[in-house]
Design brief:
The chain is mainly α and 116 residues long. It contains 2 helices and 2 strands; from the N terminus they run H-E-E-H. Strand 1 and strand 2 form a beta hairpin. Helix 1 packs antiparallel against helix 2. The radius of gyration is 38 Å and the shape is rod-shaped.
């Protein structure tokens, strides 16, 4: 919102400046030469600047969108891997607990036989 207000204020300033300087000017660019109103030259230059800035802004937004999409895919992949690894840890802990119980039940009768 503040950016929109800034653009509107800047546009008004440029328009007032252009209207106050309404004289004919001669323009030369490489092989072209023509005469035009200073208002048209100022507004045209301003609009070309806005167009160039908009192109850069769109390119930056596209780059950000693609990076955000790639990052989100990586997050989803890592979360799925995390769930898989947590399930494996739980399975291994359960297996270890069963082995410990089995080992304890095997050793208890032997120890009972040694106590006469």
């Amino acid at each position: 919102m503040p950016l929109l207000i800034l653009v509107i204020v800047l546009s008004i300033i440029v328009a007032v400046f252009a209207v106050q300087n309404a004289v004919a000017v001669s323009l030369n660019f490489i092989f072209w030469s023509f005469s035009s109103s200073l208002v048209l030259v100022i507004l045209g230059s301003f609009l070309i600047g806005v167009l160039v800035a908009t192109c850069f802004l769109l390119a930056m937004k596209a780059r950000y969108y693609l990076q955000a999409k790639k990052t989100q895919e990586q997050i989803t992949k890592l979360q799925a891997e995390n769930v898989r690894l947590q399930e494996r840890i739980a399975m291994l802990q359960h297996t270890q607990m069963l082995h410990d119980k089995a080992a304890a039940s095997v050793h208890q009768p032997i120890e009972a036989d040694k106590k006469p």
